[in-house]
Predict the 3D structure of the following.
Amino acid sequence: MKVLLAIIVFLAVAAGAGAVFVWFGCFNVSARVPHWDITVEAIEVLRDRSIIVNSRDVKTPPMTDPALAPKGAAIYNEACIPCHGAPGISARPFSQGLYPAPANLLSGSIQSEWEYGQLYWIVENGLKLTGMPSFGSTYEKNEIAVVIAFVRRLPKISPGEYERMAGSRKE
Ligand code: HEC
């Protein structure tokens, strides 16, 4: 009985402390105040496990036909460039204010970290509590597949090739 009472008192105090924390605005939601390192690590594990598990059911096959590259480039140029930039083209200045910062899609590290289906899932669904939008309601499945095929090649594409494939940046 005493143990039960102790648990109830502990939970009540914890709930009270939580309510005080929230009510007095102790958590700063400002995008200019970074998380603690331990919070960043916890969020990364949460995000990565979520992507790995939820992308297992992706059925859409990769679009590897090189003839589709210009289509992938055109979609990238329209939908991704403001935040991720492209070979020879910087991202829009506003993207510097995003927290977390947009992933670097030009270095090749994202392409070696994620497989095709995982990249597909990220772009179709977006990433909650980050600036990464979901494109599943604005693009067809085959359009997302084509842009992913393009993203996988992106680190090897030169600025000149990019311009030839995509034309100039859409305003
Ligand atoms: C409005 C800004 C914005 C746009 C537009 C955008 N992204 Fe992102 N993207 C982000 C941000 C912010 C992150 C980082 C999320 C994180 O750290 O978890 C991200 C992360 C990613 C990731 C990597 C996930 C990881 O491991 O961090 C991929 C892949 C990606 N974006 C692809 C795309 C593609 C392809 C497009 C276009 C179809 C696109 N993004 C459009 C903001 C954007």
Notes: The chain has a mean pLDDT of 93.
